[in-house]
């Protein structure tokens, strides 16, 4: 007798199977994959859970579920991941952007507040009316509430996303700050090709340049930045083997391995960043759990006059270090 497979039945089966295999979010993963196999959204899937599936539909779902059973991440199976406010293409060769990395984007956006005179406070407005209000973009370096962006007041803001991977950080900032331009760099040609596809899909190509190479090495001579953002590899090499199979067996080692103590790249970024930052510019980086204090010390040692602050992620873990150079050197 042929079994009558419905989306509900496959969903129940897949959730039980994924749970048994230690997959972290079995229901969401199963819903995403079954919906994909039926070319529907997750909401649409629930509108028609009990209809019998035809052979083609079953084969498509089976192929997708089978890949997840072998621990391939859902984002690689679907070919994309939503990050901040946009959808990013991902694939083997590029790290899947994580929600906690959005803290870097949020901090960058706080640094890039554009506040035309009518949106500034009384004191600021008074200061600006004498002499005439500046039409240059104001970069403000506190966490005051954001103000609406006025295209006529914009200047030329340049951002560097080092170790850009899919481009999730730099491109998300560009989407929010129409006056900014970005340079995206990565050692991996494969990652940079995906970042380029994302920039094209998001309509950002006119404001992005891509350079392949080791950290700052490919940056053209003389180019400097208002903001450097980076989520470099930071897993201590000795911990790679103990990572969940979804990460260890599928995500690129180049995107994970931060050397003996995980801080190899952070050390180099801290040492070199000041040369590429404009006065008053900021360096905002993500690190691993337990690394923030050391990264803060690195910034303190190499970014003269900066008072690096630590920001926590959505889980309360100290995740991001943000350091701003003084506007004027004494
Ligand atoms: C943790 S991933 C971050 C990707 C992306 N920024 C994100 O947050 O999703 C680190 C990236 O650094 C790149 N990378 C590793 N070593 C590098 C180096 N020496 N110079 C430049 N990029 C490097 C990897 O290829 C990878 O794309």
Keywords:
elongated; 9 strands; single chain; 330 residues; two-stranded antiparallel sheet; binds S-adenosylmethionine; 12 helices; alpha/beta; Rossmann fold; 7-stranded mixed β-sheet
List the helices and strands and how they pair.
Layout: H1 7-20, H2 26-37, H3 42-47, H4 55-69, H5 74-78, E1 80-83, E2 86-89, H6 102-111, H7 122-129, E3 157-162, H8 168-176, E4 180-186, H9 189-201, E5 208-212, E6 225-230, H10 245-248, H11 264-276, E7 277-286, H12 292-302, E8 309-312, E9 318-324
Parallel strand pairs: 3-4, 3-6, 4-5, 6-7
Antiparallel strand pairs: 1-2, 7-9, 8-9
Helix pairs in contact: 1-2, 2-4, 6-8, 11-12
Bound molecules: S-adenosylmethionine.
A few lines on this structure:
The chain contains twelve helices and nine strands.
Q: Which strand order do you get reading across the main beta sheet?
A: 5-4-3-6-7-9-8
| Oligomerization | single chain
Helix content class:
25-40%
Query: How many individual β-strands?
Result: 9
Largest sheet: number of strands, sense, barrel closure: 7 strands, mixed
CATH class descriptor of the largest domain: Alpha Beta
Order of helices and strands: HHHHHEEHHEHEHEEHHEHEE
Overall geometry: elongated
Unreliable parts: 116-121, 123-154
* Domains, number: 2
Beta-strand content bin: 15-25%
Structural class computed from helices and strand pairing? alpha/beta
Give the overall pLDDT as a whole number: 89
CATH arch. level architecture of the largest domain: 3-Layer(aba) Sandwich
**Alpha-carbon distance between the two ends:** 85 Å
CATH topology of the largest domain: Rossmann fold
What is the number of helices? 12
- Which small-molecule ligands are present, each listed once? S-adenosylmethionine
Q: Assign the CATH superfamily of the largest domain.
A: Vaccinia Virus protein VP39
Question: Taking Cα atoms only, what radius of gyration do you get, to the nearest Å?
Answer: 23 Å
